[in-house]
């Protein structure tokens, strides 16, 4: 099956790319070539998806059964894909986000029928708009969509709510004994998923005829509190987490950008029901526990010291929030 990934070398998509190759998929990766990630067996097309002239030249020469867009964040990106691919592919898979689900959740168990509604976070609002557009072209023109909604999925990143996503800052801070912010009282429930587990469900949807027109989330069934998430990371690093609990509303007042991600996603307790993906892809089962998976993440950083980037702005922001909170409440 000839498949094109727009992207395919990121935190989640690299694991999917490798499993797709292992399963015999004829995989092409369309990337800008900025990530130093090699996917053995994949054919690479180096260009910018926003360069319409070059992209049209590529698709004039190459025909694909399935196209997956890993990097579509705005409706304008998705509309360009539809204009390019309408009538030319058997399946178009759009990578959305589980943050599109109703916030605040009126029922804590999330299924694919949970309403999409997010008044807090622009990122999620854009994803909802992309989904709504794709659903409309599926209904009106038969464009063969499948929508996939990852939640907090990790491999080469630390799955945390506050403290740095794509860097080593949180580990450095923990090792120095610095205070770590956990929103609320740390007891709200969350799920983190290793990208290798996510890949098992996702690859099963590639070329799946019955998946056309459907939405899926793919997550682990392991449920953790946010305190457990941060303490597990600290334990894997051989230290103790010096946790400071700060209310989400307070964080939002001090740093609205962080607050948007909490109110629009990670600040609520959610439990994902994975019955649908397990029905469509019976072989899917998440088997990597967080305590095991986060050790793999740390091993990845330890393999190359240049990966251990420390972002001073993240430390400054955390210190700012903690200082403001302690002045008011301690």
Characterize the structure shown.
With 330 residues, the protein is an alpha/beta fold. The protein is 40% helix and 18% strand. It is built from 12 helices and 15 strands. It has helices at residues 13-22, 52-61, 75-85, 122-141, 169-175, 195-203, 226-236, 248-254, 256-266, 275-280, 290-302, 312-329, and strands at residues 2-6, 26-31, 43-46, 66-69, 91-95, 109-110, 145-150, 152-154, 179-183, 189-190, 192-194, 215-218, 224-225, 242-246, 271-272. It has a 7-stranded parallel β-sheet, sandwiched between helices. It has a two-stranded parallel sheet with strand order 6-15. Strand 4, helix 3 and strand 5 (91-95) form a beta-alpha-beta unit. Helix 8 (248-254) packs antiparallel against helix 9. The protein is globular, with a radius of gyration of 20 Å.
Which keywords apply here?
single chain; 330 residues; alpha/beta; 7-stranded parallel β-sheet; two-stranded parallel ribbon; 12 helices; 40% helix; globular
Order of helices and strands: EHEEHEHEEHEEHEEEHEEHEHHEHHH
Count of discrete alpha- or pi-helical segments spanning 4 or more residues: 12
Distance between the termini: 61 Å
Point out poorly predicted stretches.
none
User: For the largest beta sheet, what order do the strands appear in spatially?
Assistant: 3-2-1-4-5-7-12
Major β-sheet annotation? 7 strands, parallel
Give the fraction of residues assigned to helices: 40-55%
Q: What is the β-strand count?
A: 15
The quaternary organization reads as single chain
- Our estimate of the beta-strand percent is 15-25%
The average pLDDT value, as a whole number, equals 95
Q: Globular, elongated, flat, extended or rod-shaped: what is the shape?
A: globular
Radius of gyration: 20 Å
Structural class call reads alpha/beta
């Amino acid at each position: 099956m000839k498949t094109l990934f727009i992207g395919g070398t990121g935190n989640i998509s690299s694991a999917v790319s490798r499993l797709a190759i292992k399963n015999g998929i004829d995989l092409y990766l369309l990337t800008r070539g900025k990530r130093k990630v090699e996917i053995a067996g994949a054919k690479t097309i180096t260009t910018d998806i926003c360069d319409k002239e070059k992209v049209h030249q590529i698709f004039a020469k190459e025909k694909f059964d399935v196209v997956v867009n890993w990097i579509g964040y705005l409706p304008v990106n998705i509309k360009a894909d539809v204009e390019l691919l309408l009538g030319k592919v058997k399946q178009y898979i759009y990578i959305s986000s589980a943050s599109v689900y109703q916030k605040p959740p009126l029922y804590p168990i999330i299924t694919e029928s949970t309403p999409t509604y997010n008044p807090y976070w622009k990122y999620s609002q854009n994803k909802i708009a992309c989904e709504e557009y794709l659903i409309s072209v599926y209904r009106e023109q038969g464009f063969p969509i499948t929508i996939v909604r990852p939640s907090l999925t990790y491999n080469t990143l630390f799955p945390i709510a506050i403290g740095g996503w794509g860097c080593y800052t949180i580990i450095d801070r923990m090792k120095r004994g610095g205070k770590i912010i956990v929103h609320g009282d740390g007891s709200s429930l969350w799920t983190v998923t290793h990208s290798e587990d996510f890949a098992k469900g996702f690859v099963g949807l590639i070329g799946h005829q019955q998946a056309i027109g459907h939405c899926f989330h793919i997550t682990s069934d392991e449920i953790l509190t946010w305190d457990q998430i941060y303490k597990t990371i600290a334990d894997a690093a051989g230290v103790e987490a010096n946790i400071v609990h700060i209310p989400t509303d307070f964080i939002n007042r001090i740093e609205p950008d962080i607050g948007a991600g909490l109110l629009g996603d990670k600040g609520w307790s959610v439990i994902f029901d994975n019955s649908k993906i397990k029905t469509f892809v019976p072989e899917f089962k998440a088997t990597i526990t967080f305590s095991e998976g986060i050790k793999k993440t740390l091993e990845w950083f330890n393999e190359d010291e240049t990966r251990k980037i420390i972002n001073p702005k993240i430390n400054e922001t955390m210190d700012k929030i903690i200082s403001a909170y302690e002045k008011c409440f301690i």
